[in-house]
Design a protein that fits this description.
The protein has eight helices and seven strands. By secondary structure, it is an alpha/beta fold. It has a single domain, classed as NAD(P)-binding Rossmann-like Domain (Rossmann fold), CATH 3.40.50. It has a seven-stranded parallel sheet with strand order 3-2-1-4-5-6-7, with helices on both faces. α1 runs parallel beside α2, α1 packs across α8 and α4 runs parallel beside α5. The longest helix is centred in the middle third of the chain and has 22 residues. The protein is globular. It starts with 5 loop residues before the first strand and ends in a 6-residue tail after the last strand.
Length: about 250
């Protein structure tokens, strides 16, 4: 019997990560999620994963703290063995992150370092440490942003880190190709979630985004999770090293 594949999603307790986890479970994969502080929300997502007929569990992780990664992977290995009776992963989805709205002239070094640690350094080294656990022919999916293509004042640091991740993803695809591991980027446009204080739910901003998006609305979490889930299936086996923007046609 073919073994079920397993995906690890960082920041899977709410927002985009939550929807990714549920959609991936519906594709028949087992799912491990990480959460930063909200264990209750994470447990609710695990319940949804199990309702979809898949196995899953949640682990705490601060993806900006590289020093914690070794202990995290020890916990992950133990959890895979006890909860799913497996030793390896098939997919890593680097989703966890926070936002920063700050004009260049106002951005501090501390602001910059915080974004660097969670959006670039954390993703780089979490991916590196996950490589021995990833099965051949699996995949890495990094979450970027439409802000690497279009620019809004105040988003320079966040967008720059996401731009770096897009370059990193192409290098992952190049170096891991011999193992059959694909690496791709999903770049959401403006999505109405709690991210960055829920600013994309602000009535005035919703009107603005809708006016510059060809499909005439702000995105919702359900617009993204199914794309990530698709990339975790055999149907996406020939997609590699690509940036897939999901913005509803924003600023075309």
């Amino acid at each position: 019997m073919t073994q079920r594949k397993i995906a690890l999603i960082t920041g899977g307790s709410r927002g985009l990560g939550r929807d990714m986890a549920i959609n991936i479970a519906k594709k028949g994969l087992d799912v491990v999620i990480t959460y930063h502080t909200n264990q209750t929300a994470a447990n609710e997502v695990v319940s949804e994963i199990k309702k979809a007929g898949s196995n899953g569990f949640a682990l705490q992780l601060d993806t900006s703290n590289v020093a914690s990664f070794d202990s995290f992977f020890s916990e992950l290995k133990s959890g895979l063995k006890t909860e799913i009776n497996r030793e390896h992963l098939d997919f890593l989805i680097n989703n966890a992150g926070t936002g920063l709205a700050s004009l260049i002239k106002e951005t501090t070094e501390a602001n910059f370092d915080a974004m660097l640690n969670i959006h670039m350094k954390g993703v780089y080294f979490l991916s590196q440490k996950a490589l021995p656990l990833l099965n051949d022919d699996g995949g890495i999916i990094n979450i970027s942003s439409g802000l690497t293509r279009f620019s809004f004042p105040g988003m320079s640091v966040y967008a720059s880190m996401k731009g770096a991740i897009e370059v990193f993803t192409r290098y992952l695809a190049k170096e891991l190709g011999e193992r059959g591991i694909k690496a791709n980027v999903v770049a959401p446009g403006a999505i109405a979630t709690d991210f960055a204080g829920g600013s994309n739910r602000n009535e005035e901003k919703v009107r603005l985004i809708s006016s510059i998006t060809t499909l005439g609305r702000v995105g919702v979490t359900e617009d993204i999770g199914s794309i990530v889930a698709f990339l975790c299936t055999e149907d996406a086996r020939w997609i590699n090293g690509q940036r897939i923007e999901a913005s509803g046609g924003m600023l075309l």
